[in-house]
């Protein structure tokens, strides 16, 4: 059956995706059946299949939307003047925390990573979404290296991988442990903040 595309159809598609998202958050991708989605969306099979040809198409649409949400969290930190590494990381953490409160995005992200190990289409979507994020981090690191605020002995790309890993670590801990952005950011501060240097000599000797 051809998939319907129109403003009204887009509204219905979003309705289906919202229902599917609730099912996936509750039961995971594999344990959720089309009957579960139909029941949650309160739609008949014939009506739903006008918008999605099957469960795989729904899953991929959810993956695209979730990856777009996470990517947007990075893009929101772009400023005319590059933010500090800590500022950038903190803003991203706060955005992910909001996405968790509003949409449960970190829990879906973990499911996506697992599916990407076995599903080439999801792996391709993930690689496509993460590439510009990694590039942005590398550009931010390079800007800090030019200003003498970050070690220039390691390539920006390798430092970007570590910073991205810190964000992924927060996503996992937010999903599983409900770790808050403020405490995670405080831990990062100890890793990326510029050391204050040794204290002044209290004896007053020169």
From TrEMBL:
Domain HTH tetR-type span(s) in chain numbering: 10-70
Superkingdom of the source species: Bacteria
PROSITE patterns tied to this protein: HTH_TETR_2
Signal peptide positions on this chain: none
Record keyword Transport present: no
InterPro entries according to UniProt: BetI_C (IPR039538), Homeodomain-like_sf (IPR009057), HTH-type_TetR-like_transc_reg (IPR050109), HTH_TetR (IPR001647), Tet_transcr_reg_TetR-rel_C_sf (IPR036271)
Pfam families cross-referenced by the UniProt entry: TetR_C_6 (PF13977), TetR_N (PF00440)
Residue range(s) of DNA binding per entry: 33-52
Keyword terms, alphabetized: DNA-binding, Repressor, Transcription, Transcription regulation
PANTHER family the UniProt entry points to: HTH-TYPE TRANSCRIPTIONAL REGULATOR RUTR, HTH-TYPE TRANSCRIPTIONAL REPRESSOR RV1474C
Protein name (record): TetR/AcrR family transcriptional regulator
Species annotation: Microbispora maris
């Amino acid at each position: 059956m051809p998939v319907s595309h129109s403003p009204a159809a887009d509204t219905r598609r979003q309705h289906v995706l919202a229902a599917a998202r609730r099912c996936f958050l509750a039961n995971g991708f594999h344990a959720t059946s089309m009957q579960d989605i139909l029941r949650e969306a309160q739609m008949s099979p014939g009506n739903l299949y006008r918008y999605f040809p099957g469960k795989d198409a729904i899953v991929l649409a959810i993956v695209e939307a979730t990856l777009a949400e996470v990517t947007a969290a990075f893009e929101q930190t772009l400023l005319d003047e590059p933010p500090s590494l800590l500022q950038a990381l903190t803003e991203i953490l706060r955005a992910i925390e909001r996405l968790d409160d509003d949409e449960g995005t970190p829990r879906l992200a973990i499911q996506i990573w697992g599916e990407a190990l076995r599903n080439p289409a999801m792996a391709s979507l993930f690689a496509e979404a993460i590439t510009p994020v990694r590039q942005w981090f590398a550009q931010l690191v390079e800007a800090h290296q030019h200003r003498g605020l970050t070690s220039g002995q390691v390539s920006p790309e390798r430092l970007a991988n570590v910073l991205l890993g810190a964000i992924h670590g927060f996503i996992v801990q937010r999903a599983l442990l409900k770790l808050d952005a403020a405490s995670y950011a405080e831990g990062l501060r100890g890793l990326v903040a510029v050391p204050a240097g040794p204290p002044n000599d209290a004896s007053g000797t020169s």
